[in-house]
């Protein structure tokens, strides 16, 4: 007859076997250890979607991006680019198709990680801010308000811009080079190494402060307006823009992105102009690049952001802070719209269930 210890031992063995069998079954069904692997996969897919969105949107408007920068920094006494259409025609005539896309490779090398970090940072910042907001209000069903979305977007913009700023700085210098200017930079890595060697590591962050100040309303309103517009359309369902499943069409999402881009870039544009001008400080060939054929010299010596604002307005007028705004508006509206929609479409393709608005 079996002893009580033998019985207990047998029951323990049976329990262990049952537990192992249950764990094996759950593992086959994808339940055990799903959360960590799912989280990593979701993060990677989100980063990929953000990178693709940035690359597609910027390449589509690369000619307008280059023209905007040339208008921002050109010598007011030797105008070569006088408006959007004339400027694009001049680049086409003097530099050909390659001239329209000059600097785009460097721009994509910057914007792909920038966009990936920005979209992902917005998602994480939104979750963190919403959690704090729900705790503060004591309402677990509370949703993000437009102001909170603006804050999350600003945080995302600052993080992404700071992480990739050196690439933006050298991209600006490469972009203003023309066929008639002395070619100091042969590419992004050559530009980075040259700036480090000749001007020091701090030079890679010239213009960072106005960029931070400018990116707060720019990224904040981009995300805030886009998400708030989508939320309002889904709840109110005006003009039949939302179907029964509360899904917005691609056209409607593009329109939301266009509105967001228009508001954000208009508020932030003066800081973008000052950033570009500060990035040229210390570049030995900047004067010849910006003056063209025998034009007068441009004052490129700024002691800081406030000094750059003051000298620009004093010598060129308040309108100089909005140089290149027209091609930038033509560029930003489709660019931001494409970025948001591409991001959501790619996440759908990759099978990521959570969207930025969720």
Order of secondary-structure elements: HHHHHHHHHHHH
* First-to-last CA distance: 64 Å
Helix content: over 70%
What is the overall silhouette?
Answer: globular
Query: DSSP helix count?
Result: 12
- Strand fraction equals under 5%
Look at the structure and name the CATH superfamily.
Answer: Mitochondrial carrier domain
What can be said about the biggest beta sheet? none
- What CATH architecture label applies? Alpha/alpha barrel
CATH class: Mainly Alpha
- Secondary structure class reads mainly alpha
Under CATH, the topology is which? Mitochondrial carrier fold
Number of domains: 1
Average of per-residue pLDDT values: 79
Low-confidence stretches: 1-11, 23-35, 291-299
- Number-wise, the strands total 0
Rounded to the nearest angstrom, the radius of gyration is 26 Å
Task: Give the topology.
Layout lengths: L3 H25 L5 H27 L1 H12 L10 H17 L3 H34 L8 H30 L12 H12 L8 H29 L13 H31 L5 H6 L13 H12 L8 H26 L8
Helix pairs in contact: 2-5, 2-12, 3-4, 3-12, 5-6, 6-7, 6-8, 8-9, 9-11, 9-12
InterPro entries: MCP (IPR002067), MCP_dom_sf (IPR023395), MCP_transmembrane (IPR018108)
Pfam families: Mito_carr
Subcellular location: Mitochondrion inner membrane
How would you explain this protein's 3D organization?
- There is one protein chain.
- The chain is mostly helical.
- It has one domain: Alpha/alpha barrel (Mitochondrial carrier fold).
- Helix content is 73%, strand content 0%.
- The protein is built from 12 helices and no strands.
- Helix 3 runs antiparallel to helix 12.
- It starts with a helix and ends in an 8-residue tail after the last helix.
- The N terminus is likely disordered.
- It is found in: Mitochondrion inner membrane.
- InterPro entries: MCP, MCP_dom_sf, MCP_transmembrane.
- This is Mitochondrial adenine nucleotide transporter ADNT1.
- It is a multi-pass membrane protein.
- Pfam families: Mito_carr (PF00153).
């Amino acid at each position: 007859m079996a002893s009580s210890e033998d019985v207990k031992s047998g029951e323990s063995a049976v329990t262990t076997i049952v537990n192992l069998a249950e764990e094996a079954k759950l593992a086959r069904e994808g339940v055990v250890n799903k959360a960590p692997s799912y989280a990593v996969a979701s993060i990677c897919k989100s980063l990929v979607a953000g990178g693709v969105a940035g690359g597609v949107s910027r390449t589509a408007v690369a000619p307008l991006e280059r023209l905007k920068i040339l208008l921002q920094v050109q010598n007011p006494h030797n105008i070569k680019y006088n408006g959007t259409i004339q400027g694009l025609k001049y680049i086409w005539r003097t530099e050909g198709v390659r001239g329209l896309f000059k600097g785009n490779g460097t721009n994509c090398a910057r914007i792909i990680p920038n966009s990936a970090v920005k979209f992902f940072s917005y998602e994480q910042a939104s979750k963190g801010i919403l959690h704090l907001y729900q705790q503060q209000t004591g309402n677990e069903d509370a949703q993000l308000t437009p102001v909170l979305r603006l804050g999350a977007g600003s945080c995302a913009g600052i993080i992404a811009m700071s992480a990739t700023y050196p690439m933006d700085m050298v991209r600006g210098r490469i972009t203003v080079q023309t066929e008639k200017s002395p070619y100091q930079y042969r590419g992004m890595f050559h530009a980075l190494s040259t700036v480090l060697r000749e001007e020091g590591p701090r030079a890679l962050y010239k213009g960072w402060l106005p960029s931070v100040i400018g990116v707060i309303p720019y990224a904040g309103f981009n995300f805030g307006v886009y998400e708030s517009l989508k939320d309002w359309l889904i709840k109110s369902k005006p003009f039949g823009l939302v179907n029964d499943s509360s899904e917005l069409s691609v056209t409607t999402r593009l329109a939301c992105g266009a509105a967001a881009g228009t508001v954000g870039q208009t508020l932030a544009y003066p800081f973008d102009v000052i950033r570009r001008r500060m990035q040229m400080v210390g570049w030995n060939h900047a004067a010849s690049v910006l003056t063209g054929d025998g034009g007068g010299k441009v004052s490129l010596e700024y002691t800081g952001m406030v000094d750059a604002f003051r000298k620009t307005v004093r010598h060129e007028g308040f309108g100089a802070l909005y140089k290149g705004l027209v091609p930038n508006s033509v560029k930003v509206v489709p660019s931001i719209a494409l970025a948001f929609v591409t991001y959501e479409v790619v996440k759908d393709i990759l099978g990521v269930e959570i969207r930025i608005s969720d």
